[in-house]
Amino acid sequence: METEFQLGGQANQEGTERVDVVVVSGRGERALELRLMGWGQGLGWYVQKSIRLDRRQAAALRELLGVAGALVPSPRRAGRSASRAGQSAAQGDAGIAGNVVPLMERRAG
């Protein structure tokens, strides 16, 4: 029998997909599983795809993500300049800002 422990996850900006990281244990082995989750109205979160990594693959992914982290700006750094731009735009529309409901963009795929 397999047991699972969810380490964490992160939703995309639109809140329609999420990546979860899960440790799966069973038969004396332990693996890391990456799951792409989708959101379905009335369903909640469901697994779209999963990738199971053994120890060697998980170690290689950890190293690659470390390199990628140096090349791709983190959301905190990128979000600061975007939030400043959003603040200046919102200041111009301050009178209607409280009456706007954000809608999610749907993409044909």
Properties at a glance:
109 residues, alpha+beta, 4-stranded antiparallel β-sheet, 2 helices, 4 strands
Structural commentary:
Residues 74-93 are annotated as: Disordered. The protein is of the alpha+beta class and 109 residues long. It is 32% helix and 38% strand. The chain has 2 helices and 4 strands; from the N terminus they run E-E-E-E-H-H. The chain has helices spanning 55-71, 75-92, and strands at 3-11, 17-26, 29-40, 44-53. The protein has a 4-stranded antiparallel β-sheet with strand order 1-2-3-4. It is flat and about 40 Å long. The model is unreliable at 80-106 (pLDDT under 50).
Secondary-structure element order, N to C: EEEEHH
Q: What percentage of the residues does DSSP assign to strands (E)?
A: 35-45%
Bin the helical content: 25-40%
What's the overall average pLDDT, rounded?
Answer: 77
Low-pLDDT parts are 80-106
From the alpha-carbon coordinates, what is the Rg to the nearest angstrom?
Answer: 19 Å
What about the largest sheet?
4 strands, antiparallel
Which structural class should the secondary elements be placed in?
alpha+beta
Count of alpha and pi helical runs: 2
Q: Termini separation (Å)?
A: 37 Å
How many extended strands?
A: 4
- Shape descriptor reads flat
Task: Record the strand order, biggest sheet.
Answer: 1-2-3-4
